[in-house]
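Worked example

This section walks through a single chain of length 415. The input is the sequence exactly as stored; nothing has been trimmed or padded.
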Amino acid sequence: MSVESNIPNGWVAVTLEAVIDSANTGLDAIKRAPIVEEETGVKCFRIQDASQKKKYKYWGNTKVEDKNYQRFKLLKGDILIARTGNTIGVNYLVKEDIKSVFNNGLIRLRVNDKCYYEFLYKIIESNLFDRYVQSIAYGTSTQPNMQINVLLGFDLWLPPIDEQKAIAKILTSFDDKIELLESQNKTLETSAQTIFKEWFCKYQIDDDLPDGWRAGKLGEVVEKSNTGADAIKKAPIVEYDTGIRCLRIGDLSNNRAFDQWGFSKVTDKNFKQFQLKKFDILITRTSILGLNKLIMEDLDSVYNNGLIKVSLIKSINPFFIYGYFRSKYYKDYINMINNDTSTRPNMKIDYLLDFPILFPVKELENKFSDIMESILKKITSNTSQIQTLNKNRDTLLPKLMNGSLRINEFKDNEV
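Given that input, the structure is written out below as tokens.
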């Protein structure tokens, strides 16, 4: 993007500094914007709020002097970028004026009238900008830390303002559809958890149970359980297409679709031993403890040793058991395990197999399983659409930003 001879007619080559009205870090997190328990009417936006995509209502409350509030309040169009830490470069766009300040782990950018804020934000969300951030973040220090003056040296091409708005509108339409599908998935997930709670959580393990119910453990219905292939020797990730993929912790934590898992080079012997089969349940055993996934079909994939796989006996419905894995009851159990282990989370298979389960009458088990299956299929379909939309948007973005695809060449049905 730095070769001016390739700039489309009417566009200009600039640095980020040329389109920024102001750029500054936020308030000191200890003295000037401390997080407090009580409601103060003012929030403080922090790096974790951006990295965890927290909604405004979940940001921390803060006490801040009025002069600091006026200087550091967040307004529509503000762009915030994490300047330090492991999630350096994570970003957030303020879409409306809000009663919040931001702390000094972030840089706030306010655009001038040369640039449309949503257009600039799409650039900041891009892989190109992320690579720039990573290249300037470390310098001579092992602790990432981004300086504002270096950040503002980022090169970009600037179309006329009307074209900026049109480009932003196209790219935002992808985000709107993705947000809608993600919202549907959250609603479906909540619905499954609500039904499970109403049907199965009104009794405790030690209660007098209804006729036909019994208390047991996960291990009673598990045919086989084991950790996955060694990530270095048995299932290394490679850059080329081997036809075999490998499921890792990051794939679960980021909810990646199958075609986004890394390719792996494995022997036939290891593939047979660690292949993912229909109705296997995968659980993360380290790092982020207890994340889980139900495999819906046989896959040309293995899983690595950060995961535990449980294969259920044929007489138990996998969707009923997976309902337990999606419940608060399971999450509380995982938290208990986590507190009982060392500072480095590491779940032993025996701990998992000791997970207490109430087994209802078969009719109720099957009724819930039918509901859970329907919900999971819809979530899977939505997730696949989300991945496709993400891929299409990320393919279009650089073409729209460098002018190789112009607005008049874009068709509405491409979204």
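What to look for: The CA atoms of residues 257 and 383 lie 7 Å apart.
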